[in-house]
Design a protein that fits this description.
- By secondary structure, the protein is an alpha/beta fold.
- It has 5 helices and 7 strands.
Length: about 210
Amino acid sequence: GNFFDAFAKNNKPLTDIKPLYIKAFVPRVVDYCCRHNYQYNLLTTSKLDFPHPKYECHAQKLWYLSQYEQYDYFLWLDIDILVAKKDVPEFPFSQGVTAVSDGAGGGEYFNTGVFGIDSKSAKTVWENGVIPLMEGKYKEHESDGMVDQPLINLWMSENNIQRNIIGSEWNTLVCAPSWKDRKQSNFIHYAGGQAGKYERVIFDLKKGH
């Protein structure tokens, strides 16, 4: 997929960051899944014809909702999520969607870098949200803001799906006040296209995060 398209062009070089995630982040996620008996899948190519090719990478997150018949729950982790320690507990799944409130929207508007969803809710979002999107609905959202997070939040509201907002230790965002305490987090999220992201990740890894 077009992994790098959503990142700022002034980041230290774009081609450095994805191999770093694969080398340093993915093994920790695999270990986390093994310890809690979760099936792990790494999605590297888009499986949907997303209306906005610029953000093709976000289609991966929408596609996996179609697998609702295969699992009881899903836990999505963006590739820029670092499992911060070896003893991270099981994810607090619940009916509906379980996620951390996003600093930009606050309240029940959640960040989709880390979120859990039960199969029934996934089926609803797939049938009432993703499929209509592929068929040309939601034209009003065809802008640079048409990515998974606002769409999934919109579909949760349209379908009255329960939102379970959990603590920021499950998705500690670089823009959040809790960032300074990220060593205590479960999942650290190096979100967005800020300049210096590569250096920030290297610094944290060397510091033992």
